[in-house]
């Protein structure tokens, strides 16, 4: 919509009495700018699409009926709830639900049914930089799988580095592609 508003605004300006050269140059500049903007959008969308395909592929390496902790290193805000794509239509519980974590969505976790989930020796309160849904009043259950979305080499935060080290101590790599890694409890 913004694109068409921008286009019609420049076409409107081109109807005023200017020299023909100025009008032609203005329209050409407009078209070049719009084409470049569209090319950048296409590039970003293709990049995001390939990451979603990578997540779907990684989701196939988690056994059915298991809990999966989705740990996101990827910093693109549009990818915030990408973990759901990895397991859409499967019978796996993903401990990442963007909508259930926000107060402005009607969807909420039923925490009374969630076990006390641990990742290795860590529970949800062990790391300030990352939390997952868990209920300490229920029985303890180890999270059998962790899906790390992004590249560990991009991590600069010390808390996140400690979390990654903790995961590496207690989990072994099952699968890796360009965008993510699947780890299984040792």
Set down the secondary structure blueprint:
Blueprint: H1 2-14, H2 20-59, E1 67-72, H3 83-86, E2 93-94, H4 98-101, E3 116-118, E4 140-142, E5 145-149, H5 158-170, E6 171-176, E7 180-185
Parallel strand pairs: 1-2, 1-5, 3-4
Antiparallel strand pairs: 5-7, 6-7
Helix pairs in contact: 1-2
3D architecture notes:
The protein is of the alpha/beta class and 186 residues long. Helix content is 40%, strand content 17%. It has five helices and seven strands; from the N terminus they run ααβαβαβββαββ. It has helices spanning 2-14, 20-59, 83-86, 98-101, 158-170; strands at 67-72, 93-94, 116-118, 140-142, 145-149, 171-176, 180-185. The strands form two sheets. It has a five-stranded mixed beta sheet. The protein has a two-stranded parallel sheet with strand order 3-4. Helix 3 (83-86) links the parallel strand 1 (67-72) and strand 2. The protein is elongated and about 80 Å long. The termini are far apart. The model has no long low-confidence stretch (mean pLDDT 83).
Summarize the structure in short.
The protein has helices at residues 2-14, 20-59, 83-86, 98-101, 158-170; strands at residues 67-72, 93-94, 116-118, 140-142, 145-149, 171-176, 180-185.
Descriptive tags:
two-stranded parallel ribbon, 40% helix, elongated, 5-stranded mixed beta sheet, alpha/beta, 186 residues, single chain
By DSSP, the count of extended strands is 7
Tell me the helix content: 25-40%
Main sheet makeup: 5 strands, mixed
Order of helices and strands: HHEHEHEEEHEE
Strand content: 15-25%
Outline the low-pLDDT stretches: none
